[in-house]
């Protein structure tokens, strides 16, 4: 026997022997009905998106029978994060197809300087291979993205925040960040319901139009101009937009930008899916005028910043490297703005934030005092007073916060509105007196109390 084997070894070359033994093994092993997809953590040097998505997706598939789980929590997280442990198997069902996910880790080999190798193995009946590749895996990627968005902590980036970002990215060393803790949402925002709906629809449409922007060759961005007196909710609306979209906010102080190259650097260090906010642009215009007066940052005219120049610049930059960008300008004085900025097509949406009217009040009453359906004796009187008084939502909110007792708070609000109304009337009559005693004798007030010429 030994002799035959050694003769065979001598007569049959090694390659052929190896081939024969594999073929014999294949022939005598029963064929598996399953296909297994191996999903490694990395594709070459980059991370494997399918692996990352599977890791998130499988958290929702953990069942009571899963034996070992990994638990963690960082200081930023509000809840525990739970993930499956190596060696565990998790079942899933997709359109009646049974699937099995296994999380496999292999220890690093001592001779090779590499870390633990991790992968998922997805097994299912062979006949569903096409369906799994064409529709189940895209479904896993999509669900994972949704779950990630839900968990995402919205950040506020400001160039004055410390640069030690918690997410580890330094964003070009330009922006520091804190978590956006602003609780404002479209539900809590006191705004005309139609305007609110228009805003939400507009944002939804914007998000869904990737292909459209590509087709027409425009940067995937949208510009909003919010105007209104202080305390009418411009900043609250921006926070509501960020919370709704789960987009980070970059708060840009134009006064801290001294040249186009500075601006380019700052803008290039912002990320996609974000809102760039430039508040109080009427004040920024003053800054520009000061520069033209020749202060230390004036420089040659070509390097000076103008608002429309800034917009052109952003358009150019974002058409080449920006996606899902929103830019918001705010102003207390729309009448003072550069006309180039107000031209149709410059900013996509103009929103005038107005004083608090009865419909907006109902949101505040529900938020602050849990009063719904006008369910309070003083409600009608307040609505009447609001129609004839200019009061901001911020002022109303402050009155409503004065007491947890709805009777006390609303009583306070009624007194406040009456006071405001009579003060306004007094100012108006003083103005009239002044004018009548002076040169402009034609000044009158109309039926609604407005001053007319
Ligand atoms: N429309 C609103 N709905 C709900 N709350 C509001 C609204 N407007 C103002 N508030 C309340 O008033 C506070 C101040 O409002 P906000 O900072 O949004 O005003 P603003 O228009 O940005 O003012 P400014 O022009 O001074 O920046 C908010 O924190 C919020 O509590
Ligand atoms: Mg503001």
Automatic annotation (TrEMBL):
BP terms from Gene Ontology: response to stress
Catalytic activity: ATP + H2O = ADP + phosphate + H(+)
Cofactors named for this entry: Mg(2+)
Region (Disordered): 421-453
Domain AAA+ ATPase, residue spans: 220-357
Presence of the UniProt keyword ATP-binding in the record: yes
Molecular function GO labels: ATP binding; ATP hydrolysis activity
InterPro entries: AAA+_ATPase, AAA_N_dom, At3g28540-like_C, ATPase_AAA_core, ATPase_AAA_CS, Mitochondrial_chaperone_BCS1, P-loop_NTPase
Keywords, ordered alphabetically: ATP-binding, Hydrolase, Magnesium, Nucleotide-binding
Pfam families xrefs: AAA (PF00004), AAA_assoc (PF14363), AAA_lid_At3g28540 (PF25568)
ATP-binding among keywords: yes
Comp. bias intervals (Basic and acidic residues): 428-453
Family, per entry: Belongs to the AAA ATPase family. BCS1 subfamily.
PANTHER family the record matches: BCS1 AAA-TYPE ATPASE
UniProt-recorded name of the protein: BCS1 AAA-TYPE ATPASE
Source species: Salix viminalis
């Amino acid at each position: 026997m030994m002799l035959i084997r050694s003769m065979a070894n001598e007569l049959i070359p090694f390659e052929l022997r190896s081939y024969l033994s594999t073929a014999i093994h294949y022939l005598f092993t029963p064929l598996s009905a399953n296909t297994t997809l191996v999903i490694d953590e990395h594709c070459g040097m980059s991370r494997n998106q399918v692996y990352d998505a599977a890791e998130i997706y499988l958290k929702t598939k953990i069942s009571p029978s899963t034996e070992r789980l990994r638990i963690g929590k960082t200081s930023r997280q509000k809840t525990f994060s739970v993930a499956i442990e190596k060696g565990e198997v998790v079942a899933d069902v997709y359109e009646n197809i049974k699937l099995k996910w296994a999380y496999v880790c292999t220890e690093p080999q001592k001779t090779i300087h590499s870390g633990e190798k991790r992968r998922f193995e997805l097994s299912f009946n062979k006949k569903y291979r096409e369906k799994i590749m064409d529709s189940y895996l895209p479904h896993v990627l999509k669900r994972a993205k949704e779950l990630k968005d839900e968990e995402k902590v919205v950040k506020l980036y400001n160039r004055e925040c410390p640069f030690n970002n918690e997410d580890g990215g330094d964003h070009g060393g330009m922006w520091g960040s804190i978590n956006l803790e602003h609780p404002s949402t479209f539900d809590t925002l006191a705004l005309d319901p139609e305007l609110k709906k228009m805003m939400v629809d507009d944002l939804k449409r914007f998000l869904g139009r990737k292909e459209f922007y590509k087709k027409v060759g425009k940067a995937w961005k949208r510009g909003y101009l919010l105007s209104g007196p202080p305390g009418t909710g411009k900043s609250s609306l921006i926070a509501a937009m960020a919370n709704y979209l789960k987009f980070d906010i970059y708060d840009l102080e134009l006064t801290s930008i001294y040249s186009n190259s500075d601006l380019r650097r700052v803008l290039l260090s912002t990320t996609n899916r974000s809102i760039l906010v430039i508040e109080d642009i009427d004040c920024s215009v003053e800054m520009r005028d000061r520069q033209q007066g020749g202060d230390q940052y004036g420089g040659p005219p070509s390097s000076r910043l103008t608002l429309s120049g800034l917009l052109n610049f952003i358009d150019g930059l974002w058409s080449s490297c920006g996606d899902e960008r929103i830019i918001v300008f705010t102003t207390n004085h729309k009448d003072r703005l550069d006309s180039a900025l107000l031209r149709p097509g410059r900013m996509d949406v103009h929103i005038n934030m107005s004083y608090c009217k009865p419909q907006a009040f109902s949101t505040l009453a529900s938020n602050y005092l849990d009063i719904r359906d006008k369910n309070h004796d003083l409600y009608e009187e307040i609505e009447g007073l609001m129609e004839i008084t200019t009061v901001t939502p911020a002022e109303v909110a402050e009155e409503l916060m004065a007491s947890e007792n709805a009777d006390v708070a609303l009583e306070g609000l009624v007194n406040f509105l009456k006071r405001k109304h009579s003060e306004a009337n007094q100012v108006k009559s003083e103005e009239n007196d002044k004018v009548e005693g002076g040169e402009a004798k034609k000044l009158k007030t109309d039926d609604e109390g407005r001053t007319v010429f």
